[in-house]
Design goal:
OB fold (Dihydrolipoamide Acetyltransferase, E2P), 151 residues, 37% strand, seven-stranded antiparallel sheet, alpha+beta
């Protein structure tokens, strides 16, 4: 995985992003794996609890797929596009609540969504290089220093 980093905040180049909502996206066929960016997991702090929506639910862009409670924040993890929630990573978080704090782009993925329109879903996201440029400004403006929880 090639990536760029700014003040410890990693942005993998091969992923797509909804930067405003701090969501990363990896398309696998007609489904997309979604997770919280490194910047977002750092801003949140250690995860405490997640409230999962049930697979099979149709979701609209901007509506929550998961509600996350952390040491510093409680809020929604929004869908970056319209689609159907097909799976959650609930079992990984049950085994290790800090999995997204340790590995936000790998084992810490949150949900799988089948976009209702693949072309439209792609249009609503930006590539890794653009996301990195936008995050670099955001990181500097908010004085963010990314970190990962240790085992």
């Amino acid at each position: 995985m090639s990536e760029q980093s700014w003040f410890g905040c990693v942005v993998p180049e091969e992923l797509l992003y909804d930067v405003e909502n701090h969501v990363w996206v990896r398309f696998e066929g007609d489904e997309a794996v979604l997770g919280m960016t490194d910047v977002a997991q750092t801003m949140c702090g250690k995860f405490v609890q997640l409230s999962w929506k049930q697979p099979g639910r149709v979701v609209k862009r901007g509506k929550p797929l998961v509600v996350i409670e952390s040491a510093k924040w409680v809020g929604p993890f929004p869908s970056p596009f319209n689609g159907e929630l097909v799976a959650t990573n609930e079992s990984a978080f049950a085994a290790d609540i800090l999995v997204a704090n340790r590995d936000p782009y790998g084992a810490g993925w949150l949900v799988r969504v089948r976009p209702s329109n693949l072309d439209e879903a792609h249009e609503q996201l930006v590539g890794g290089a653009e996301a990195f440029d936008r995050y670099r400004s955001f990181i500097e403006e908010h004085e963010i220093r990314c970190f990962r929880c240790e085992e």
